[in-house]
Every structure is written in C-alpha cells, then in structure tokens.
Amino acid sequence: MIKIGVLISGRGSNLQAIIDACEKGGIPAKVAVVVCSQPDAYGLERAKKHAIPGVVLDPKKFPDKNTYELEIVKVLRKHEVELVCLAGYMRIVGPVLLEHFRGRMLNIHPALLPSFPGLHAQKQALDHGVKVSGVTVHFVDEGCDTGPIILQKAVPVLEDDTEETLSARILEQEHKLYPEAIKLFAQGKLKIEGRHVRIK
Ligand code: GRF
Fold first, then answer.
1. Structural domain boundaries enclosing 27
2. CATH code (residue 79)
3. What angle do CA 111, 117, 121 make, to 5 degrees?
4. What is the Cα Rg of the chain in Å?
C-alpha cells in the first residue's frame, strides 16, 4: 500500500476521484495527506470528510518559492508520502519539490499534450478549432506540462461546445484516467525511459 500526497488549489474533484478509487480497493494506495495552496479551497472539505489530514500552505506567507516548497516536502515526508499527485495545483513546480519527488510526481492536464499546455487548456482547444481534445496524465519535470506521458484519453469537441460543456466532458474522463495511472504506478508497472513511459 503506497502513500499518496495530493497537492491542490481548488475544488478538488480529481482529489475526490482518487480518494474514492483508493477507498473502493483495487488500487494498492491511500491518500495520506492533502496539501492545499488556497485556504478556502473546497478540496479541503473533501479531505476532511474522509478523515484525511489537510494542510494549508499559502505561498504568500513564505519569502520565496524554495522555502515554500521545502515546507511542502517536510509535510509530505512527515506523512511518508511515496507518490505526489498534482490535482489542480495552480503553481509551477520548482527545483526543491522536483529534486525530492522526481519520477514520483504525477500531474493531470485537460488536453492532449503537447497541445495546449498551461492555463485554460479547454478554451485553447476551442479557440484553435480542434475536433478532438482530451486528458493527459504525465510525470512532472521542470517544464510546464512537459513531462513523460503515462496515459491519454481522447474526448471529442462538439460543434456547439462552450468552455463549460467541453470542460465537463473532459473532466468526466479525468476522473477515470487519474486513478488508472495511479494504479499503474502503485503496482510498480511504470518505467520511465527518456521521454517514454513503458507500461509493464
Ligand atoms: C482539472 O481540469 C485538471 O486537469 C487541471 O485542473 C483542474 C482541476 O480540477 N489540472 P479539480 O480541482 O480536480 O476539480
């Protein structure tokens, strides 16, 4: 059973999907701690409901990014976290977090990377006029949404889609894909070879 630390900044629906998948069994993992960069995030309520410790670390209260991330690392270590999952964590990961959890930190992105990295991926996809977008779960590296890709799932873009309708259709798939990727990691089935993630 591996221990997961989930980093969030907002509503935490992916956090919920991860918690539910772990509780249902089938994934040899449990969420040991939730770290949140926003004091009023709804995701903290979700953690509380499942008796998972939620720790608020507001970056504004730290002198710089390194000091902030050292505190995150301290919390994750205290809870013996072996896998870090970014789930709507609205900050770019810096060298401190990366150094401690390289190869053990995942992110989910609401587009088929390398298309539409960064913020508002669903709007970017709509504005570009693509017919298909989707979801990517990847390992985190120093770039913004650039790390080795673990799983992807395509989602159609419909003629009358708005940012909201497309986001909702993508989110439904996010909630399935993230637990699936975590399961593979927890089972020791993922091997990073350069840009490639081999699934055993
Ligand atoms: C999701 O769309 C995720 O892909 C992106 O941020 C959003 C977070 O949503 N990185 P939630 O907080 O998990 O509901």
1. 2-190
2. 3.40.50.170
3. 50
4. 16
Sequential DSSP letters for 122-178: HHHHHHHT-SEEEEEEEE--SSSS-SPEEEEEEEEPPTT--HHHHHHHHHHHHHHHH
Probe target for ligand 1 pocket from 155, 174, 178, with the most ligand atoms within 8 Å of CB:
174
Q: Is residue 43 within 8 Å of residue 89, measured between CB atoms?
A: no
Is residue 128 part of the annotated active site? The answer reads: no
Q: Is residue 200 part of a domain?
A: no
**Ligand 1 atom closest to 86 (CA):** 10
* Domain-located, residue 110: yes
The reply to whether the predicted model has a pTM over 0.90 is: yes
Domains: count for the chain = 1
Distance 8 CA to ligand 1 centre (A): 9
Instruction: Say what the pLDDT of residue 26 is.
Output: 84
CA distance 19 to 189: 21
Give dist(CA 44, CA 164) in Å, integer.
Answer: 23
Is 198 inside any structural domain?
no
Share of the chain above pLDDT 70, in %: 100
Flag whether 59 is in a domain. yes
Q: What is the pLDDT of residues 82-117, one digit of tens each?
A: 999 999 999 999 999 999 999 999 999 999 999 999
